[in-house]
Amino acid sequence: MTQSSHYIEVALPLPLRRVFTYQYTLAKPAVLGARVRVPFGQRQLIGIITETRATAPQGFEAKPIVAQLDDDAVWQPELWQLLSWSADYYQHSQGDVFANALPVLLRQGKPIGYAPITYFELTSNAPDVDEHALKRAPKQKQLIELLQQGRLSATQVKQAQISTTVVTAACDKGWVVSVEETPILDAQQHWTMALSEDPLAVNQEQAVALSAIKQIDGHACCLLEGVTGSGKTEVYLQAIEEVLTAGRQVLVLVPEIGLTMQTIKRFKQRFDVPVEVLHSNLNDTERLHAWLNSRSNRAAIVIGTRSAIFTPFANLGMIVVDEEHDLSYKQQDGFRYHARDIAIKRAQLLDIPIILGSATPALETLSNAVNHRYHWLQLTQRAGVAEQVEHELIDLKGLPMQAGLSEPLLTQIEAELNKHNQVLLFLNRRGFAPALMCHECGWIAQCKRCDAYYTLHQAQRRLHCHHCDSQRPVPKQCEQCGSTHLISHGVGTEQLEDFLNERFPEHSVLRIDRDSTRRKGELDAHLKSASEHKHHILVGTQMLAKGHHFPNVTLVALLDVDGALYSADFRAPERLAQLFTQVSGRAGRAHKRGRVVLQTHHPEHDLVQDLLNNGYQHFALTALAERQATSLPPFKHWALVRAESTDKAQVVEALEQMAACLPQVDGVMGVGPIPALMEKRAGRYRYQWILQTSSRKQRYQVTKYLLSQWENLSILNRIRWSLDIDPQDFT
Ligand code: ADP
Ligand code: ZN
Ligand code: ZN
Known about the structure:
There is one protein chain. The protein is an alpha/beta fold. Helices cover 30% and strands 24% of the residues. The chain contains 20 helices and 32 strands. The strands form 8 sheets. Strands 11-12-10-13-14-9-15 form a 7-stranded parallel sheet, sandwiched between helices. Strands 16-28-27-19-26-25 form a 6-stranded parallel sheet, sandwiched between helices. The protein has a 5-stranded antiparallel sheet with strand order 2-1-4-3-5. A hairpin with a 2-residue loop joins β3 and β4. The two termini are 54 Å apart. Bound molecules: adenosine-5'-diphosphate and zinc ion (2 copies). One zinc ion binds next to loops.
């Protein structure tokens, strides 16, 4: 036993912002950054060694650890530093940050190494696919056809939408066997760069952007701002090419894998190198393998969503964040990090370039571009053959409406359908109707647990609260006056779909929202048949707005934008402008001219006018100036305390006590307690307190001080509360 490391500090996956001291009793030396198994109360936990210390802790007897699981640190110094920085920046439990960054199997204490994978193979007993035995078993037939081309892993079988029952049946018949195999770690099995298709000849703007990126020596952040279809992906591909040629790896962050399949396909098509895609369909073993492949330089490109930012790399040379404005980069619970912001930090620590791409940059990002902290690269023209889009406002005042559609819009829809074009309609409300109302007295069915109305789902004959998930059958009578004359109020996607089916019986309508894509694979299938023009009218929530390619869509309409114009959330206009611009990019992408129609009661609204006449960037710069004038982020730095309890008085009192700890410092202000945008949800009262500071450093110091003070407030044990640095959401 080495005398110098008698005790260790361990970061445990707990919400507590502290480390725990244990006695180190093993013969081999304690390794900083290695995993240990330690006793904690009645349980054992896996933690990470953050420090060794020679002296015993004061005032208590440190327990001995159970085991040290690794002989080396889990992470290279670079990632270790990034994780420590993240815990500090977000003032979050270090142990929880570490746990977030590990594949589940490692969190559970499994060894760092490849685990066995199950494969399925055909046996010599398998029947020929034309055989009679398979006539009435199309899934069995599909399985055998697939396996004839080679063995498949369990996940590949799942991805082909073949159920385990089908596979088990084939195994029982002796047609198929399962084999377990562990990939072998070969230390020198690295990739070499090869192109599998020629890059496109770039246009002038792309060339300017590329040369700026290629000139970067060391770290720099580039904002690649370009309308949809302007060729950003081509710029990523050619920028990456150079990095791969230099033998370095690349990380690409995307908002949602299911919605970015086309982009991923282009990466795989361009480069003949191993690509790891971290998507939610991976099982724990596959996730661990992807992690290992990246760490040991067996993967050249890693494409993944938010949490992929914590993937270890042997030799990372560039990071790309596609659709950098997307909200999904911000984790909304637990460790509330922003993957884009951590990506920028990571690129700084590694001294490598990072590209943020978007048609609609976040105002935070734009502000850095304006201040020359980022290279601002712009693509203003659509690449390829796509035509520009026309915009049109329909003033709804006084117009007759059917299922949320005005007569002029219906006329346009009809015209496009007659020309065999596709139409895309956005309505951000799923269900049949946002409310059920009594026609006699005006009573509206309201969720008892939330400040919200029930949504009517006609197909299931149910009322559903979209905030707490509570459901009930549609009542027969008004709860207030007993009348049976209950009517739906407002329009949801389900009703819109019903109406369109009735109005255009010759044309197929496809609805894409959370209700119609609940089952795995359903979204992909819907998107595929939509882009293949199997449906003429597409109805959807903003789920449909992200990066799809529907070449036949010539008319896009946003049916109801008024809500966002008068929202209490200061970011609502930015979000509407992003949605509008993104969907504009969905229209007329191929050879057809597209048109985007906005239905509103407020066509004269400044935001609407600015967007239509001057485009997203102009709107965004104006909005930025307004934020500066009103001292909103990014000109002030916010931290948000959310608190909730079934007892309203208690939650307000708790926040008041927290607010009272705020020191009087120049440039620091506390706002609240104020009710959340939805004051009551699932039976709990929700209040907020906002800390506003004039610099990040100041916010860091003040929150650190506050957290130490709040430890003494006993009332905090009686409510739920959390701290959110750079909050994005106030609902
Ligand atoms: P974005 O990523 O900005 O939406 P893409 O890179 O997907 O844009 O480009 C849109 C379309 O234009 C794609 O079909 C792409 O193949 C094509 N394209 C991009 N750059 C060029 C170019 N330089 N010449 C011809 N076609 C291009
Ligand atoms: Zn009534
Ligand atoms: Zn509810």
